């Protein structure tokens, strides 16, 4: 008691202000989490790091994206490297790994600020409910081309998105036919088994 009485009145005010600010900040965090559903990015420990980008489509407009940051681009599993195209209203469940060193992953206009860390996978969810282009920038120095390391998430009207994907699938199909015929030609040489004696 005697120490509080001996305290400078200004010091008491400073402590009071600090305590009330901490209370406000803590309440804001609880409100954002419980009331607004704002999620905090998390490190995923049950998923081993992956080396290539991948898009896994779930039901409706939920998709899971495995993104890999490497010198000096973002592979998000899209046919166009550095891009991720999604229809309007998509919620992206984003998993981020690194192919080499530590990179940053910031999505312009979104509350997303992740690190791509070698040996680890980080996860967050992002809702894209407005059409437009959202730039991705690497914001962690990662080598001489760091300032060039960027990507984009293109949020498209659903009809346009479906049309584009159909066109790409049709373009990809004619290439599959010659590839499918190639194994038949190599079957002409079945004796070529350099590892014949090994199992
Ligand atoms: Cu990647 Cu800077």
Question: Care to describe what's here?
Answer:
The chain is of the alpha+beta class and 199 residues long. The chain folds into 2 domains: 2-35; 42-160, Sandwich (Immunoglobulin-like). Helix content is 31%, strand content 32%. The protein is built from 3 helices and 11 strands. The strands form 2 sheets. Strands 1, 2, 3, 4, 6 and 9 form a 6-stranded mixed sheet that branches. The longest helix has 29 residues, at 158-186. It binds dinuclear copper ion. Dinuclear copper ion is lined by residues 69, 72, 103, 138, 140-142, 146, 149. Dinuclear copper ion (CUA) binds at residues 69, 72, 103, 138, 140-142, 146, 149.
Bound molecules: dinuclear copper ion
Largest sheet: 6 strands, mixed
Order of helices and strands: HHEEEEEEEEEEEH
Low-confidence runs: 184-199
CATH hierarchy: architecture of the largest domain = Sandwich
Shape: elongated
List the helices and strands and how they pair.
Blueprint: H1 2-6, H2 9-35, E1 42-44, E2 54-57, E3 62-70, E4 73-75, E5 83-87, E6 90-98, E7 103-107, E8 112-116, E9 121-128, E10 132-137, E11 150-156, H3 158-186
Parallel strand pairs: 3-6, 5-11
Antiparallel strand pairs: 1-9, 2-3, 3-4, 6-9, 7-8, 7-10, 10-11
What distinguishing features does this structure have?
199 residues; alpha+beta; Immunoglobulin-like; 2 domains; six-stranded mixed β-sheet; five-stranded mixed β-sheet; 11 strands; 31% helix; 32% strand; elongated; disordered C terminus; binds dinuclear copper ion
Compose a concise summary of this entry:
This protein is of the alpha+beta class and 199 residues long. The chain folds into two domains: 2-35; 42-160, Immunoglobulin-like (Sandwich), CATH 2.60.40.420. It has helices at residues 2-6, 9-35, 158-186, and strands at residues 42-44, 54-57, 62-70, 73-75, 83-87, 90-98, 103-107, 112-116, 121-128, 132-137, 150-156.
């Amino acid at each position: 008691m005697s120490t509080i009485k001996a305290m400078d009145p200004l010091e008491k005010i400073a402590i009071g202000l600090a305590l009330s600010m901490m209370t406000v900040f803590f309440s804001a965090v609880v409100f954002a989490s419980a009331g607004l559903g704002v999620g905090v990015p998390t490190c995923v420990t049950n998923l081993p790091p992956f080396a290539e980008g991948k898009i896994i489509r779930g039901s409706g407009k939920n998709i899971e994206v495995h993104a890999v940051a490497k010198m000096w681009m973002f592979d998000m599993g899209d046919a166009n490297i550095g891009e991720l195209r999604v229809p309007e209203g998509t919620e992206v469940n984003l998993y981020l790994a690194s192919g080499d060193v530590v990179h940053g992953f910031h999505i312009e206009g979104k509350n997303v600020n992740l690190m791509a860390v070698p040996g680890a996978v980080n996860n967050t969810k992002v809702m894209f409910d407005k059409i437009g282009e959202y730039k991705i920038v690497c914001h962690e120095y990662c080598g001489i081309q760091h300032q060039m390391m960027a990507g984009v998430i293109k949020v498209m009207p659903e009809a346009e998105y479906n049309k584009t994907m159909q066109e790409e699938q049709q373009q990809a199909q004619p290439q599959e036919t010659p590839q499918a015929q190639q194994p038949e030609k190599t079957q002409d040489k079945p004796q070529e088994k350099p590892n014949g004696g090994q199992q």
